[in-house]
Design a protein that fits this description.
- The structure holds 2 protein chains of 2 kinds.
- Chain A is 41% helix and 21% strand.
- By secondary structure, chain A is an alpha+beta fold.
- Chain A has a single domain, classed as Heat Shock Protein 90, CATH 3.30.565.
- In chain A, strands 1-2-4-3 form a 4-stranded antiparallel β-sheet, covered by helices on one side.
- The longest helix of chain A has 22 residues.
- Chain B is α/β, with parallel strands linked by helices.
- In chain B, helix 1 runs parallel beside helix 2.
- The longest helix of chain B is centred in the middle third of the chain and has 16 residues.
- The radius of gyration of chain B is 13 Å and the shape is globular.
- Classes of the chains: A alpha+beta, B alpha/beta.
- At the A-B interface, helix 2 and helix 3 of A face helix 2 and helix 3 of B.
Chain lengths: 139, 115
């Protein structure tokens, strides 16, 4: 995808539809779409800095029990440990710095991987269906 | 849906009715420009009606924080009105709910300003 705001909006739409197809409830879908939007903003704005020569790679995968979303950029790289805690009193009123916090708040698992160049973030949300199935089978 | 902002005056309070999405790009810019314009005109009591705001991302949250601090720096007050559940939850998890003065009724909100 191109490093544009349109790509951010498109990815958000795709995430909403994919999450719906995977059977997530509306509240959970909203969280997933927000996490994807924030990860895309990081990739497009902070990673690729809107550079038209740099691409963002987005993929969705379902393995039966999880929805796995991967977003990779070609930017200068991100050190997630170095991002200040947005809930700390000294950061609470800062204008930016909440994206990764929100991603972690809405997803079950978040992984970062360094690329050469860039950063890849993997967002994982567990699909509740199989557990329900096991409960029904055990009764 | 793009963001729209319209303003009205009630008892010395400027009410900004916002609708749409406050997100990176147009939505955040509309909010920023509206607040800048109001402060430029000397508005001191600003009530942001978020009842028709369907979605806010981290950029939009940042813009709300920025609006709050800008108004405070000018010696004014900014309050929020009619949060949707989504926006309410977002302000809760970012610990901003208690920072903002959040109001549920317009009349109560207007009388809560220190005039």
């Amino acid at each position: 995808m191109e490093s544009t705001l349109e790509s951010v909006n498109k990815a958000e739409e795709m995430a909403g539809q994919t999450a719906k197809d995977a059977g997530f409830e509306e509240d959970v879908r909203d969280g997933i779409t927000m996490a994807v939007r924030e990860a895309m903003i990081n990739a497009v704005l902070h990673g690729n800095a809107y550079d038209p020569n740099k691409r963002v790679n987005l993929s969705f995968e379902q393995n039966g029990s999880e929805l796995i979303i991967t977003i990779g950029d070609e930017g200068k790289g991100l050190e997630p440990e170095e991002v200040p805690d947005p809930l700390a009193p000294e950061n609470l009123m800062k204008q930016s710095g909440r994206g990764i916090f929100l991603i972690r708040a809405f997803m079950d698992e978040v992984r970062f991987r360094k690329l050469e160049p860039g950063t890849e973030i993997t967002l994982i949300k567990r699909i509740p269906g199989p557990d329900l199935g096991r409960q029904e089978a055990s009764t | 849906m793009s963001m729209k902002a319209s303003t009205r005056q009630v008892d010395g309070v400027t009410i900004v009715d916002l609708s749409g999405r406050i997100t990176l790009g147009e939505g955040s810019v509309v909010l920023r420009d509206t607040i800048k314009d109001l402060l430029g005109k000397g508005a001191k009591h600003i009530l942001l009606n978020l009842g028709d705001v369907s979605y806010i991302d981290s950029s939009g949250i940042g813009e709300l924080v920025s609006a709050f601090t800008s108004v405070q720096r000018q010696g004014g007050e900014l309050k929020l009105l009619h949060l949707t559940k989504k926006v309410h939850d977002l302000l809760q998890i970012t610990k901003l709910y208690t920072v903002f003065d959040v109001q549920e009724e317009e009349a109560t909100a207007i009388s809560a300003f220190k005039k």
